[in-house]
């Protein structure tokens, strides 16, 4: 028996309330980063059955210490929104209307362009590529990049004609 004025060991919780559990119970936690800005805030992505069910700030991240901006807090909608656009809009040359195309269709021109970029660069490009720590390019590096971009201009224009619908 408890003394008057002290709490008993019995919890003041109903049976219904004691049977309720967190929706995150049993979820797998994956560490990730926010995709929106360059700060790269740490995220905890809770998944069940390989589907995200919740996203929270990572309290162990030195960048954001568990806090998220409004865009970061709404990251779950980026992947789980039923209204998410999963096609690209394409307007053929000389056409007067837009067509919906699957994302896989749009990836092909992008992959072709990256192959053209690789083949247009000289073999020793990586040896003469600028150091990220340098503040500017030297004359030879500028000439190499300019020549590569001039060769790629038609392919880049074609790839840019496939614009995703935002």
Describe it for me?
The chain has 166 residues and is of the alpha+beta class. It has two domains: 22-80, ADC-like domains (N-terminal domain of TfIIb, Single Sheet); 87-164, no CATH class. It has helices at 15-18, 70-73, 76-80, 103-120, 125-128, 139-160, and strands at residues 28-33, 42-48, 51-57, 87-90, 99-102, 163-164. Strands 1-2-3 form a three-stranded antiparallel sheet. Strand 1 (28-33) and strand 2 (42-48) form a beta hairpin. Helix 4 runs antiparallel to helix 6. The protein is elongated.
Short description:
The chain is of the alpha+beta class. It contains 6 helices and 6 strands; from the N terminus they run αβββααββαααβ.
Average pLDDT:
76
- Main sheet, how many strands, which sense, barrel? 3 strands, antiparallel
Shape designation:
elongated
Q: Bin the helical content.
A: 25-40%
Total beta strands: 6
Q: What is the chain-wise order of helices and strands?
A: HEEEHHEEHHHE
How far apart, in Å, are the first and last alpha carbons?
Answer: 67 Å
Strand-pairing-aware structural class? alpha+beta
Rg result: 27 Å
Strand coverage percent: 15-25%
Treating each run of at least 4 consecutive H or I residues as one helix, how many helices? 6
Lateral strand order in the biggest sheet: 1-2-3
Which stretches of 5+ consecutive residues score pLDDT under 50?
none
Number of structural units classed as domains: 2
């Amino acid at each position: 028996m408890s003394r008057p004025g002290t709490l008993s060991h019995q919890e003041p919780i109903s049976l219904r309330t004691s049977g309720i559990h967190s929706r995150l119970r049993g979820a797998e936690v994956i560490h990730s980063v926010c995709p929106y800005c360059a700060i790269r805030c740490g995220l905890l992505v809770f998944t069940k059955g390989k589907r995200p069910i919740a996203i929270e700030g990572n309290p162990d991240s030195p960048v954001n210490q568990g806090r998220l901006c409004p865009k970061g807090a709404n990251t779950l909608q980026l992947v789980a929104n039923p209204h998410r656009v999963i096609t690209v809009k394409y307007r053929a040359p000389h056409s007067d209307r837009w067509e919906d195309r699957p994302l896989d269709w749009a990836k092909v021109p992008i992959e072709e362009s990256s192959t053209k970029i690789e083949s247009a660069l000289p073999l020793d490009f990586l040896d003469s590529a600028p150091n990220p720590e340098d503040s500017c390019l030297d004359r030879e590096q500028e000439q190499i990049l300019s020549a590569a971009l001039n060769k790629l201009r038609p392919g880049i224009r074609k790839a840019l004609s496939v614009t995703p619908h935002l």
